[in-house]
## 1
Amino acid sequence: MLKSGARRAGVREPWLVLLVVAGIVLVYAWSGHFWVDLVDEGYFLDLSQRVLNGALPYRDFTTYYTPGIFSLFAAAFKLFGANLLVIRYLMAVIRGLCALLLYALTRRVAPWPLAWLPVTFVFLFDAWPIEPEPHPSWPSLVACLLTMEFLVRHLTTRRLYWLALAGASAGVAYFFKQNIGAFTAIGVGSYVLLRPRTSTSLWLRAAQVGFVVATAVLITIVMHEGLDPLTFGGLWLPMMVILGLLLYRAIRGSSETDGSVVLDTVVSAGSFSLVTAAWLIPLLIALGVRQTPLGLFVGEVDQASIATAFAAVTPGIPPLLLTAIWAAAVVITPRARRWWGLAVALGLTAMVLALPIWQGPRDVLTTDPLLQPILGWLDVNFGTLCLYLPSMAVWAGIGGLLAFGTRLTPHPYFVLFGGLTSLTLYPRVDVLHAIVSSPVALIGATGTLALIYARFSGWRRTVLIATGVLLPIVAVAPQVAWRVATVVSPDTTGERLDYEPLGIADAPVLVPRPSAADMHDAVAFIDANTPPGTPLFVYPVAPLFNFLADRPNPTRFDHFLPGTLSDQDFEQVIGDLQHARPRYVLWDDLGVHLWLTDPDNRPLSDYIWSCYHQVTAFHPYLVLERNADAC
């Protein structure tokens, strides 16, 4: 009878998963009818529209990313029209695929109740719809998860085509975002070289050691500029530990695989190279070798202009961490080795007590009298914990490997991929990057919870599982509260749930009432006074206006954040404006003060105010018209 019930549950599970994933897609699609993001969403939509109109990345506009996202969005625009909701719906489907793969992979190392944890936490953590983020990290992350699925299938079947698909999928991840793609490729290489084998040779051992050393050196070189103590312990050190564990496991050997290392390497690397060559060679032909940003594709980015270090922990975090450490130490450590658990707990306690504590007040996130007390308390006490969620998840995965061994076959590789993808949080440690750096790491952490679930029972199991789940719950709680407060009270001067249609054909969404009027009126003014296709310059960081007004940006840059442009770049921008002579400049005064663009951008702002004068304003958006005696 029990076996029959288990079989029925096994049959029902796929349908339940598909139903939940479909629900996630529908929730994202429905909520995609609210809010707009002038900054990041505007960036990707405007540049994709440029590609649709024949622009070529790196020649006609600058970007930090490989060209996949712009090609995908331009194709969507061509098929369904250049409408904001087209991309929102596409991103809803991509997030649904992410949820499906997250569950499927976690299910390989955890029972079904625990397997829902990564999906749940990512869904709660996501800032959608306030910050919808059609970011290339999402399709790249899906390709990374698909790579992991192909590797697991190769691990269980030894079929070589799964390895070929894994390499190709890593190539797709690279096509959308180079750092996730590169780390995914390193993960594939680690799987190929560091799997335990029954028979080994001296050259294989040398190759394994050389690969680990080379990977460690590469990660260190990439991170050396910003390797402060928090980055060291949160991102760099866990990767070194994982590589060391996998190397030790490989050298010990086992019967996990007997395949040819050379053949596996050729197949996986070859498929990755073919996918990459399919877009890189045409780009080289179109741009020419000298104009192709090959350095950008291997990680040469001006980190100083975008770097953000780990924020100090808010005051409630150390007590929470100490509670989790000592609960685990008391419950897990066998009586015969209690002193080892005590030593580890004491060492971790010293590290926690040494963490820098946030000094000074936190920003007021809402003035809603009903929501402020809860959100304020959560933010003041635990507001920065979400930044450490990827690191905590990776360390949890490592803890499972150290405490229980590596018998759960896919688990070591899941922890490896989690550590690699967590590195994408560097060099910009902020909430939006923490969101996309967390999903893979949460798989390995859930695998550790599954090991705990299998090894313990009764109150010990309950305490350990509750402690492990408590940390991510508290990490995402301030973000959930902020999102609820922002949606319920969208404007500090307006009514609760005060939304109205934006009233723009290409963006049929509901936005907070004051914002709707300001944005609609600014776009309507531009539309009434300039014919379609005439250039519009938006300063400093609101490129969605170019998309909404269907007026092209006359420069190669969409963001003018302080420190991101060189003197030569400013000269080029001013030259482009002199050449295009746009009639209007849309000056986002709120953005100027928010991003503190002065004095870094003074050459450009001085040019604008010397050649343009204000003719009207829609609250923070000033419309500047070119002087009759044009510069």
Note: The two ends are 86 Å apart (CA to CA).
## 2
Amino acid sequence: MELKAFKWNQDGEGIVTLTWDDPDRTMNVLSNTAMTDIAAAIVKIAGDAAIKGVIITSGKANGFCAGAALDEMEGSASGAGAPKSEEERVRERYNGVLQFNLLLRKLETCGKPVVAAINGLALGGGLEVTLACHYRVVADNPKIQLGLPESKVGLLPGGGGTQRLPRLMGAQAAISLIMQGTSLDPKTAAAQKMVHKVVPADQLIAEAKRWIKETPDAVQPWDKKGFEVPGGLPNEKGSSTVFTMGNALYRKTSFNNYPAQRYILSCVYEGLAVPIDAGLRIEARYFTKLLMDPASRNMIRSLFLSMQDLGKGARRPANVAPTTVKKLGILGAGMMGAGVAYVSAQAGIEVVLLDTTLEAAEKGKAYSTKLLDGQISKGRSTEEKKQKLLGLIKPTTDYADLKGCDLIIEAVFETREIKAGVTKQAEAQLSDKSVFGSNTSTLPITGLAEASVRPENFIGIHFFSPVDKMQLVEIIMGKKTGDYALAMAVDYVKQIKKTPIVVNDSRGFYTSRCFGTYVGEGQEMLAEGIAPALVDNVGRMTGMPRGPLELADDVALDLAYKVREQTKKDLGDKYEAGPADTLIETMVAKLGRFGRKNGKGFYDYPADKGGKKRLWPGLKDIVKFKITSSTPELVDELKKRFLYRQAIEAARCFEENVVTDPREADVGAILGWGFAPYTGGPLSLIDTVGTKKFVEECDVLAQKYGKRFMPGKLLRDMAEKGDTFYGRFKPATKKAA
């Protein structure tokens, strides 16, 4: 027997240790190779009387198994090389899913006791392999994660997870974990009966062998006579409320946008009512339905494959040697600068935090203190780690402290004159190899670089608020930005463990332009007389994290007003005003309603942080509400306006060469401003609708609501040729276009 992803070791007592250590991958995954090995091993184990028990563990220091090989799964789901008949395609996928389920079923019924010795993270299919083992022992390491996160990428567990986990811990606990994709640390997993025992890492194999020798049991609980599901069956009194409440919660939180969560509920409900073999077939059917769903394919591509590629630096210039930021200068210690200081110090980077007064700079450092104190209170950090991190941040007002900085990030007020002033003062202290990055969210980098003596080393590095939580960083190439600056920016973003996208220069770049259309469309709707509660509720129903009016308040209405005034000044006669312009001018310039920052915007915010915000009653005096109730047809129309408006702008950015890679357009949209994740991103949305149909529907919207919905030349050309973004535009090379 030849194994490729596993190593076989059989001791003198007949105990086999199968060590999972795929030489072709840095992390073990359930690849076709791994499953072939498991199948061969099961035959050997079941047929050899000399084998008394089996231990499955990992040879990788970073984990047991990270789950399915989604790169292989995505290729299969796309239909490449599949039979043309839809019926044949469905049958092929169902048989493929069922094959894995049956493989694990053979493992747990092989007649020999099988132990999972879990020495690192076990997620998705990796955890499902352990659930098919008779005994699960985990190393005592709080960093180990155990869970079924498939729902986060539009899938459900396809290796029996929806059947075995509820039979171990009960439907209520299992549904919560599976639907949310929650991971548990070893001790919590043991308390919830996901695993049997937690031991020190160096005792893992010894404990596995002890169990096989002393208390072996080669039959799973659900295969024993008289087995009862913890908490009862779905149709029993008391148990049925779990599913009633679960369904209500799903619809409240997801607005029925995510089929995976809906199918998970169905898998558990239907599967617990039948023997496990039938339950596994039920799970395979629902998994197949998801594989055939474009939303799942889009989510796998954007939220896993594309994010993984970009996170590894897919857009980094290959001709530049790796760089490391050892000393970072931050200009401006406000909320954004303070956040950048925290995540940078967290990565072990020395930080100089500069502001106009030492009090302001110290206040910026205090933001890190606040975050760290919160972590300590939750047991996630220690006082020692806190002091070490804070020791890396130096508040100052002296530009001379910037000497030796590899990278500068400017995060001062959004005005060209102020940014130009700090650029000149900072660059006077820097070496020729230092890179200057501006955190501007709207002002063109090429224009800001005019204040620099080294425009080839001037680049945009746009963070999102709050910096410690937001995963995306938008890197903007000015006309003169060179490869070295781009390489350092990408390397720095990787250093702080965030995901970079690279875009070319324009007003608002990519994310701010597209995000602005969502907020702007909500304001247009309000200006048309649609009640604000309806506007925000429908915004959330599209899958956006918050309503457009809420978001406008969060970002700050006065900032939007200032940006708009600067844009008017820059564009002159070319600027085209919309109905929302008057609305914002009234709110800011006349009424002093700046948003959440001063407690009054479209909403009123209580001084007591524990209080709830409420829509400002005075809106009815500014706008005459013409539509105050909804119908299904109206909701569908408003949802389409929100999603299509953003998608059109994303397509325009592509046409104007602002964004050049479909992966960055989609990942940037989801991570940057929360574009409906179930769509896979705005360009995936267009591809799924079909370019021809999308253009036709946009033309209808343009006739009703204005030319902002008018598709551009690129979309019309693609519609005529039947092109898709992912078909026509291959992933970009490691250099911005």
Note: The chain has three domains: 6-292, 327-504, 512-728.
